[in-house]
UniProtKB/TrEMBL annotation:
The lineage of its organism: Bacteria, Bacillati, Bacillota, Clostridia, Lachnospirales. Flavin prenyltransferase that catalyzes the synthesis of the prenylated FMN cofactor (prenyl-FMN) for 4-hydroxy-3-polyprenylbenzoic acid decarboxylase UbiD. The prenyltransferase is metal-independent and links a dimethylallyl moiety from dimethylallyl monophosphate (DMAP) to the flavin N5 and C6 atoms of FMN. This is Flavin prenyltransferase UbiX. Keywords: Flavoprotein, FMN, Prenyltransferase, Transferase. GO terms for molecular function: flavin prenyltransferase activity. Its EC number is 2.5.1.129.
Length: 195
């Protein structure tokens, strides 16, 4: 086998300072279960603060779910370059500050730079945009991003057609939707099959 055949597909997974850290954790676990994929994690300082509030685990425990970890300050790291090969990028949760930074091309940290690179290379960029209610500014920024090739905005919205029995079922369903654009079919993901 050639080295390129052995190479795993990298998904950059970033987390920013919005609610939804259990979904991040579930996405990282789903990627870890897929032998053809690996995750590259970048967590903002605000994400770490939110994670400590929402999860019963440490930053180090979340980082162990990833194959590689970078800090947002490492602006010279691999994900800052288009020559760093990836299947794309997932930002979960994605704050409106991050949405605004991506929309405006304001790449002042590794998360925003990696998103900027993902867009310019026309790779998949999935944003678990997290805010409620949404202001006209939020909607305008998301509208502009939605028109770009490869950008998908998948807000972590509750669904009930899969008959969830607990919150974990809902988290699993949303996480499965978030990793699907990268070619990952999560175990137990229940698609709509009609009435």
């Amino acid at each position: 086998m050639q080295n390129s055949e052995l190479r795993k597909k990298k998904i950059i997974v970033a987390a920013t300072g919005a609610s939804g850290m259990p979904i991040l954790q579930e996405c990282l676990q789903m990627i870890r279960q897929e032998p053809a994929y690996e995750s590259v994690l970048i967590m903002s300082r605000s994400a770490v603060l939110t994670m400590e509030h929402e999860l019963d685990c440490t930053k180090e425990e979340i980082e162990k779910l990833a194959d590689q970890v970078y800090s947002p300050e490492e602006t010279g790291a691999g994900p800052a370059s288009g020559s760093y090969r990836t299947a794309g990028m997932l930002i979960v949760p994605c704050s409106m500050k991050t949405v605004a930074g991506i929309c405006g091309g304001y790449a002042d940290n590794l998360i925003l730079r990696a998103a900027d690179v993902t867009i310019k290379e026309q790779r998949s960029l999935v944003l678990a945009a997290r805010e409620t209610p949404l202001s006209p500014i939020h909607l305008r920024n998301m509208y502009e991003l939605s028109r770009m090739p490869g950008v998908r905005i998948i807000p972590p919205m509750l669904t009930f057609y899969q008959k969830p029995e607990c919150i974990q079922d809902m988290i699993h369903h949303i996480a499965a939707k978030l990793v699907e654009p990268f070619g990952i079919e999560a175990e137990g993901y229940r698609r709509w099959e009609g009435i």
